[in-house]
Amino acid sequence: MTLLDVGDGLLIADIQNDFLPGGALGVVDGDKILPALRTYIDRFHSRGLPIFVTRDWHPPHHCSFRDRGGPWPVHCVAGSAGALPPDDFQVPASSVIIYKAIDPDEEAYSAFHHTPLQRHLKALGVRRLFIGGLTTEYCVLSTVKDARALGYETYVLMDAMKPVNPDDGRRAEEEMLWMGARPVTLKDLPA
Ligand code: VGL
Ligand code: ZN
To answer: What's the pLDDT tens digit per position in 9-50?
Structure first.
């Protein structure tokens, strides 16, 4: 299928300490996808293709936190240790970092929502977007939805994402494919 080529871009959602085991909103086995993600990064970077990484980056009293009636424990507070990627997950210096959900009064899961992502993608000529990371049924699903609506050919990294809740994760996978996103694994992308 998909030999990587000019016009392809990789988007990795929310690899941040708080979403990894032991973190404030630790995703079970979230760390297990890091090796695959490192390989995806190599595949794109070695071809000079652009890489985008998102960071959930909440102000200290974000509306999604329980103390404000939201569903989540305090997590990924802007600039805190929990909001940083783990030391063993370094991305190329040329990666574009997208900060999201920075507005205190607005929940936002998609990497497109009130961020400059779309402008960066246009500027870099990205037409096919490959999306994985954390978490399947929130950031990945919402981002894939927006990418499809914006007309991107969209690939979901089936071997490099994890859900908060496994049932919701399976439903989200079905929904993404139903929206026309295509499944991809490392096996589909030769070195
Ligand atoms: C996310 C839970 C809470 C996500 C963000 O981006 O997937 N999930 N905040
Ligand atoms: Zn969040």
So the answer is: 999 999 999 999 999 999 999 999 999 999 999 999 999 999
Tell me phi and psi for residue 35, to 5 degrees. Answer: -60, -45
Ligand nearest to the CA of 57: 2
Q: How far is CA 185 from CA 89, 132, 143, 161, in A?
A: 20, 10, 18, 11
pTM as predicted: 0.97
- Give yes or no for residue 44 CB within 6 A of ligand 1: no
Residue 32 region by backbone torsions, left for phi larger than 0, else alpha for psi between -120 and 50, else beta: alpha
Nearest CA-CA partner of 15 in 126, 111, 106, 118: 111
Q: Is 100 a catalytic residue?
A: yes
CA of 175 to the centre of ligand 2 (A): 21
Are 59 and 102 in contact by the 8 Å Cβ rule? The answer is yes
Contact 4, 47 (CB under 8 A): yes
32 is catalytic: no
Q: Which two tokens stand for residue 131?
A: 């999306």
Q: Which amino acid type is present at position 7?
A: G
- 142-165 pLDDT, tens digit per residue, is 999 999 999 999 999 999 999 999
